[in-house]
Amino acid sequence: MKKYLAELVGTFVLVFFGCGTAVVLGGLSGGVDGSTLGVVAIALAFGLSIVASAYAIGPVSGCHVNPAVSLSMLILGKLSTKDFIGYVIAQIVGALAGSAVLKIVVSSSEVLKTGTGLGQNGYGSESAVGLSLGGALLVEIVLTFVFVLAIIGVTSSVKTASLAGLVIGLTLTFVHIIGIPLTGTSVNPARSLAPALFVGGPALTQVWVFLLAPLVGAALAAIVYKAVFTVPEEA
C-alpha cells in the first residue's frame, strides 16, 4: 500500500504543478501577465516535478507516476501484474486529485477562471498548430518511446541509478519542448485523462489518443530495449 500511496502523491505533484503551470502561464499565449516564459517554463515544470518526485518517492515505488512507464516495467518483468493494476489505479486517482485541486485554484482567480483549460491535450482545432489526428498519434508514440527508453536505460544499471531522477526529469522536459505546441504533450495516460474528465467537450472526445498512443510508445520502448539494448550483466 505504501507503494501505491507514493504513486498517488507523485502523480498528484506532476499534474498539479505541470498542468498548473500551463494554466497559469497561459501556454503558448505567453501567460496571463504578458510574460514570455511559455513553452520552456511549462516543460521545466513537468520535468522538475519528476525530479522532485523521483528523489522523494523513488525509493518507495520507483516513481513511475505514469501508466505507460508501469506498462513498460510490466513487459520487462520488473513489475508484477498485481502491482501494475495497483500502480495504474493510484496514478489515475492522483491525477484526478491534482486536476481537482487545480480546478479549485483556477475557479478562485478572477483572471484564470475566464479560461477553459486545465492543461488538457488535443489535436486538430485543439492543437496550437492544428496537428491532425494521425500526426498526434505519431507524435505521442515517438515522444513516449524516447521518454520511456531513457527511463529503462538509466534505471537498468546501478552505475547510473543515482542520476535517474535528474535524467528522467530532463528527458521529460526535452520531449515537452517540442510536444507542447503539437499536442500539449501527454506521454502519460493518467496526466491526460484527469484534465479531460474535468474539462469535457473536445478534450474528452479526443482523450483516447492520449491514452492509447503513450501505451503503444511505452510497449515499443520496452520491446526494443529488451531485444536490442539489453547487455549481459558483469560477473
Description of the molecule:
The protein has 235 residues and is an all-alpha fold. The protein has helices spanning 2-25, 38-61, 67-75, 81-107, 133-155, 164-182, 189-199, 202-229. Helix 3 runs antiparallel to helix 4 and helix 5 runs antiparallel to helix 6. It is globular.
* Low-pLDDT residue spans: 27-36
Assembly state = single chain
Percentage of β-strand residues: under 5%
Rounded to the nearest angstrom, the distance between the terminal CA atoms is 35 Å
Number of E strands: 0
What sort of overall outline do the alpha carbons produce when their principal axes are compared?
globular
Helix-residue proportion: over 70%
What is the radius of gyration computed over CA atoms, rounded to a whole number of angstroms? 17 Å
| Total helical segments | 8
What average pLDDT do the residues reach?
A: 91
Main sheet overview = none
Order of helices and strands: HHHHHHHH
Structural category is mainly alpha
